[in-house]
Amino acid sequence: MTMDYLFRRLAPGDVPAMVKIIDTVRREYGVQHRIRSVLEASDRELFATYQIPHAEYFVALHGDVVGGGAGIAPVVGAGEQTCELQRMYLSARHRGRGVGRLLLKECLRRAKALGFRQCYAETILEMQEAIHFYECSGFERLNAPLGRSGHGHNDCWLVKDLATVAE
């Protein structure tokens, strides 16, 4: 149940747990076959990555255990009104409890409060559960990427209008 979870902004001490979750989930879905390195420098430096203007990262805690996280940041080359949902990952034992839905809700709420009008997301087609989750959350598929995320291995792009998101 999500009542057992606390949602807050990422703290420096959360980074090792989130890096492990990101690495595990990417390997679970076979991302290592698409890219040179499963983890990027921005993953390892997660706290610093979200210390730029209009960027935030949130974690879900179950007791003192980090169960997952998600963030938003501006999309390079997509205009000032578009943010990207980034690094939304939950460990397997924390999925199916509504945690992802609440993390996404917090990211979208903050994105709207920061003045973004749409939220962009990228993933790979192998992550069908994630794609289904995004589509059920109001994201619509695009035929091509927005901006320049630097993730050429992604082959599924989605966007959500933030007009209907409650603040």
Structural summary, described in words:
28% of the residues lie in helices and 28% in strands. The model has no long low-confidence stretch (mean pLDDT 87). The protein has one domain: Aminopeptidase (3-Layer(aba) Sandwich), CATH 3.40.630.30. It starts with a strand and ends in a 6-residue tail after the last strand. The protein is built from five helices and seven strands. It is globular, with a radius of gyration of 15 Å.
Question: Any descriptors?
Answer:
alpha+beta, Aminopeptidase, 28% strand, 7 strands, globular, 167 residues, 28% helix
Oligomeric nature of the chains: single chain
Q: Whole-number radius of gyration? A: 15 Å
Low-confidence stretches: none
Order of helix and strand elements from N to C terminus? EHHHEEEHEHEE
CATH architecture: 3-Layer(aba) Sandwich
SS-derived structural category: alpha+beta
User: What's the CATH superfamily, by name?
Assistant: Gcn5-related N-acetyltransferase (GNAT)
Overall number of strands: 7
- Any idea how many domains? 1
**Average residue pLDDT:** 87
Spatial sequence of strands, sheet with the most strands: 1-2-3-4-5-7-6
Look at the structure and give the CATH class.
Alpha Beta
